[in-house]
Amino acid sequence: MKLHQRIWILLFVFIFMACAPQEAESTSPHWTYEGEEGPEHWGELDPSYAVCGTGTHQSPIDISTSSEKDLANIVFHYESSQVNILNNGHTVQVNYDAGSYIKLDSVPYDLLQFHYHAPSEHVIDGKSFPAEIHLVHKNADGQLAVVGVLLDEGAENSALNPFIDNLPTEKSDVQDAGVTINANEFLPTLQTTFRYAGSLTTPPCSEGVNWLVMTNPVELSTEQLSKLEELFENNNRPVQEINDRIITEDSTP
Ligand SMILES: [Zn+2]
Given pLDDT bands bounded at 50, 70 and 90, which one contains residue 25? Predict the structure, then answer.
């Protein structure tokens, strides 16, 4: 093959790769946290978002009544991960390296990513928190389990710095921040949880998500919080009706 033919092929491959992600992105309809495309309208924006409006097991919720039970604890097997970070226009997310998982009733769920909302999406007894981290896991059957960690203002949380110090300020593709993080280090020490059946808190709002909201918040400093809020503030879906659901509190660590 002649040199100019090779160059043309390389050019086509390059153009294809540059265009492909944009095409993939434009297939899911745009949504926001306020106005015409805000949470009240998510269900009408696209047929694939319908459950956002019609679902009866939606998240987040106000956790005001729960029944205590002695459940098997979540077993965390979190390793360090490269901070592969992206700003998806709704939050900042770290795609977690393979190999970290939780065990829920002895079923492993792989940790896929974590991201944040400010203020918190879950509310406890009517009390909102300044922020909430969601650690998203999936099992071999494709079922999701999300661990919610509520963040309260207080002491600096150095375990969060590899994340907070590398937040992409513009909407971005995945970037390697060149540092590592261990999600284990920003979990609360006392790992009791509220558990209930809910949904994704963003479109398409799919149900069948096992929610595990940590009973105890962890602290972060005012400075750390303002870095999160500078990028995304009010990226929290309002609380949804509980309907027939029972919230269980695993009160024994
Ligand atoms: Zn979330």
Answer: very low
DSSP string across 88-119: -SS-EEEEPPTT-EEEETTEEEEEEEEEEESS
Q: What tens digit of pLDDT does each residue of 184-241 get?
A: 999 999 999 999 999 999 999 999 999 999 999 999 999 999 999 999 999 999 999 9
One-letter amino acid at 187 equals L
Number of domains forming the structure of the chain: 1
C-alpha 96/C-alpha 227 separation (Å) is: 21
The residue to which tokens 């940590």 are assigned: 214
- Three-class SS state of 96: coil
Kindly give the distance from the C-alpha atom of residue 14 to the centroid of ligand 1, in angstroms, as a whole number.
34
Q: Other CB atoms closer than 10 Å to residue 104's CB: what's the count?
A: 21
Domain contains 164: yes
What residue type is assigned to position 239 of the chain? Answer: V
Residue 93 alpha carbon to ligand 1 centre in Å: 9
CA 114 to chain CA mean position, Å: 5
Print the domain residue range for 74: 57-250
CATH of the domain at 139: 3.10.200.10
> Is the residue at 178 inside a domain?
yes
Q: What is the pTM of this model?
A: 0.89
Q: How far does the centroid of ligand 1 lie from the alpha carbon of residue 145, in Å? A: 12
